[in-house]
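Task: complex structure prediction.
Instruction: return structure tokens for all chains below.
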Amino acid sequence: MKNKLTYILCCLLQLCFLTSHAQEAVTTDVAPGIKKISTGVIDKLTPYSFCEEKPLTDALAKLPAAKLPFDVNAIRVNITDRGVLVEIPLDDTEQLYGFGLQIGSFNQRGLRKKPIVNDNPSADLGYTHAPTTFYVSNKGYGILVNTTRYTTFYCGTTAKNNGAAVVKNNTGGNSVDELYKNKDNGSGNVSVDVPGAKGIEIYVFEGPDLLNVLQRYNLFSGGGALPAMWGLGVKYRVKADFSQQQVGKMAAYFRANHIPCDVLGLEPRWQTAAYSCSYVWNNQFFPSPNEFIDTMKNKGFHINLWEHAFVSPKSPLYEPLKTKSGDYLVWNGLVPDFADPSARKLFADYHQETFVKHGISGFKMDECDNSNLTTGNSTWSFPEHSRFPSGLDGEQMHQVFGLLYQKTVYNIYKTLNLRTFLDVRASSSFASSYPAALYSDTYEHDEYIRMIVNSGFSGLIWSPEVRESKSIKDFMRRSQTAVLSAQTLYNSWYLQNPPWLQIDRDKNNKNELMPEAKQVEADVRTLLNFRMSLVPYLYRAFADYRLKGIPPFRALVVDYPQDKNTFDISDEYMIGQNILAAPLTEAADERKVYLPAGNWYDFNTNQKFEGGKSYTIKPSYTQLPIFIKEGTILPLAKPVEFITPDTKFEINCKVYGANPVSTSLFEDDGITFNFQTGSYNNVELSYMNNKGSVKRSGGFKKQRYVVKGWEVIK
Amino acid sequence: MKNKLTYILCCLLQLCFLTSHAQEAVTTDVAPGIKKISTGVIDKLTPYSFCEEKPLTDALAKLPAAKLPFDVNAIRVNITDRGVLVEIPLDDTEQLYGFGLQIGSFNQRGLRKKPIVNDNPSADLGYTHAPTTFYVSNKGYGILVNTTRYTTFYCGTTAKNNGAAVVKNNTGGNSVDELYKNKDNGSGNVSVDVPGAKGIEIYVFEGPDLLNVLQRYNLFSGGGALPAMWGLGVKYRVKADFSQQQVGKMAAYFRANHIPCDVLGLEPRWQTAAYSCSYVWNNQFFPSPNEFIDTMKNKGFHINLWEHAFVSPKSPLYEPLKTKSGDYLVWNGLVPDFADPSARKLFADYHQETFVKHGISGFKMDECDNSNLTTGNSTWSFPEHSRFPSGLDGEQMHQVFGLLYQKTVYNIYKTLNLRTFLDVRASSSFASSYPAALYSDTYEHDEYIRMIVNSGFSGLIWSPEVRESKSIKDFMRRSQTAVLSAQTLYNSWYLQNPPWLQIDRDKNNKNELMPEAKQVEADVRTLLNFRMSLVPYLYRAFADYRLKGIPPFRALVVDYPQDKNTFDISDEYMIGQNILAAPLTEAADERKVYLPAGNWYDFNTNQKFEGGKSYTIKPSYTQLPIFIKEGTILPLAKPVEFITPDTKFEINCKVYGANPVSTSLFEDDGITFNFQTGSYNNVELSYMNNKGSVKRSGGFKKQRYVVKGWEVIK
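Output:
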């Protein structure tokens, strides 16, 4: 009877909605250059509803005047018994990008994409670790459909039966050659199908330029993430069954061999139970964890703990979370309803008291990406029809589970005024402010490079980790890519020794090192030292991400949206303002690199190249495949082995070309949020009349950068 | 205003539903051993709603008394704002099969399956050419969720958070070895998630045995299909750009070289437009089509026409279908609303007048499987949010488009009292009565074998076609599989010459024949002659399919549901009552064959084997890998090159073992439905006291089988 009443009430509510349904959609300005279209009964829990960060309106206001290449009212929303259909204008020439961390595709024009959370690119349906329902156009706008529902985007691939069809001049494809060539890409719009929705919110991010669109998106989400500075160093994850003593030995190896390392990651065995998780130190392997953390800290290592969010009956969190979890178990463990603030708080408080207060610097948040989806066996996550006390169903929760998990853990650090750099296996929309790097098991190097390029379209950080390798060449090229990415990570969770000593998994675990081990180790040291040299430059790029919303890693088309040659380039990208990276895989010892307008310098040879053309490069294993834009002042640090708040970087500036543009470094303590209240400096580097100068301004009292020299490259 | 009113009415309707929602599900007996559970507001257009065939209740009533291993009321249905959730009991030991023509998996226990229409098995999500929402258990029952919506089945893989979770004895998987071993397969039920549904119909097919379940399913669907007898011969599809003259030349080749062939299939170029279709003869290539059909007929060839259902603006069908089509075009062509009888009639009438009345014997109905789904480019079919005048949306239409297309074309022949054998790229539930063979481009030989085995669980006919090959071995093994399947098809739509003359596509099209061409041709002739020998036996098997619902091709577990060794065998199958087939691929020259209870004879060596064990066989390219059950009388015909209603089969009976069981042949004209009104004979073959006997009973006046000899194998 109660049920019946609920349904009747529910239905009356729907009546109200349906009355409003016939009304027009409402468009509002929510921030400079950002509009929101709302219509129908909108889900209470949307990706944006979980975004606690405030839009950085000051920074938004400083962007060039916004402009949309079409009338916003041309966006049509249709609500039916199936759900919501959104149609957005699309002109014949524009190019589309986004949909989160796409693995298999780059330019999405002409494709259908269903960005749903999963680790398996599965025939390029759109499955991804980070299913943002967000795309951008090179014409300078972005469309975000703010929903947790599985959504399909038809990017200019449909044609309507509206009576306009005519007999075309072509033959209709009646010969074999024409069979697979049909390019009749239909009408000029993007159709977005959101089954099950009864209303929708659409965020429209205006330009004028593509970069401005991304800036607006990131600034609206609270700005990009600024990781703790040590996060930009090197992370190494030890074998899953290492004991406290073995981790200590590994740490000693790094320092003895002067291989840079800032973070050591522990894998499952540190807990008493891992599938599902107890979140309790396993004293058999870690008899004195807090002492261990301190010892490591004194040697310059931060400790990161692997876990996932499925709570074992063995966990102290089990009882408190029992009624704040979904109605299905995973590995016999609870699925906390992270959409409920009180569930997040329980989880966070426990982690804060048990781990963070004792010095744990970060977590690797695994298994939040519904990774079983494509293996047939569904024990790896909760079913899509799960129900959570917050009202989300399993499908909706899947889409935001990684997002909410990040939020839960990130808030611990924020509360403590501590910055961090996390690892997470799934993310979503409006997540740019979370300092968490996505990772994957997929491990195709060319895809890993494409994911760096795609990450910038959706406010994501991607970590192309290195594990075992097919060959030394494969290993070295992967290492180069790792060095030229947001997080340099060697993930040895199933390797006894660092992979540079033995690339083969079995031999590695039998301690059979390669004959070339010492040479490869030396080469890796060279690469990692370069990474450490680049940290100040990268840190500036991340500060620009935080403060201006500029993605530190982004496709060439972002900076050169009018250059047709960039439209499909998914294996080159910009790092910060001035570096163009073009990683190689083991496929070949050389590759073509397209350089956009302007002049560019090969970082390794200092040779100057004219833009607008392609060149072939052939870097060695220790030469990073990067080009520097003419006019750049590139600050490179003397490599350190790890970074502390006291680290003072000795900078050498490389000046490229005759008319260098002044640049700056971002100077703060590197570990707190004090920069938000002004405790940081801009360290401006200029070079004029054959002389370099350093100008410091801001509220941070310490000097972290000392410029030691200037090197001019003509 | 009108819109608003519609919605208010709609909502009031929902109110009525919601009142009924709180009511219990209603269970009714719909046929002997078949129950229907109904609850909520059920979609008007379901797969069963399209089934015009009447249940064969007499045959159903003859089956053993039905039995369900659980109380039917234990099936729970829950309707929420997400859709419908169905939970069906599952005990710890039972094995599950079905979900249509699954490509990647066989035993579905422990898997999640989403049977949605597509040609790409894509990480074994469940995508298939024939997405039946139907599974069966070896415990002797079947469950069919009668919906056109995309549905997910969790086959015993979920565990509920119901307070029952306890700390288990295992360690919770905290060591690396345990990471991937978690076998905690959760509670005892199958969960079925039907998003978007507001009510549901569930058909429960009872046993007692698994075979009875399949019989009930097929009989309920109108019985299995009985193809025209010529359909069991050999089909050859010619190159897509062949002219009338070239087809004639190919026909002459077959007869001159005494290679059996009953059907020649024409590919796209016969039409004036093919993507989309005009359904108009292209007179440039076929200047006199009706004369051509007659000439071919006189030589014993049936002509089959390739097409798909997307109607070109160049087609005479375009204007009439314009308002009876979906709101999106495919290749600039209409998508007829085949759920609307008047659209089907227009399409059928045109085909009847233009083609069937002039002697076209069948069609290949292509492109109805949403095959673009996994390629990213969605121009290959209509979007899921399409709307059709009948009320179906695109998702729902996709699931039944192939089904309705078959129905449309099959009805032409039924109306004319002509039997046929069609090709179709997609099917669905309740389709067993359609004489249409499914085909695919996927072309993995081991998968093609598995699909034969899976086809029997869902009332489907599968054609593992042969095209080019990697090696002669690959080609010959594929040919063997084709001979041991429901349709023997060589698909040379992109090959100038028969593939047995050149397996390599490029060389084939350059007319560079293999040095071994004549030998391979001879070997293929041997195999195809065997096929023709088997036709009377196969025809009986199909008659049993039609009259008793017994799948002619089925997994060993169907006949031996208690034998654990059969539970996972997906590369052996039964053909008819007495033949066990175990095809080889090019992977090896020998294979293991498991033989179930009883004694079996190797067809090639006549060696006798004891069942319950595995043996290794090593058949040559011309030896079919089959075993014959002890007690079998196997009627084999002297091969003919093609089959007409006048063909008289000269039969030699092979008698296996000392106590043969009498068997029978099904005798009719082979081309009409007159058997339905009694115009057929049972030709009983017995062997006793060293003497064979033939006893004919029934209402068919002609004799098509003459028994010439008996061969006893001890």
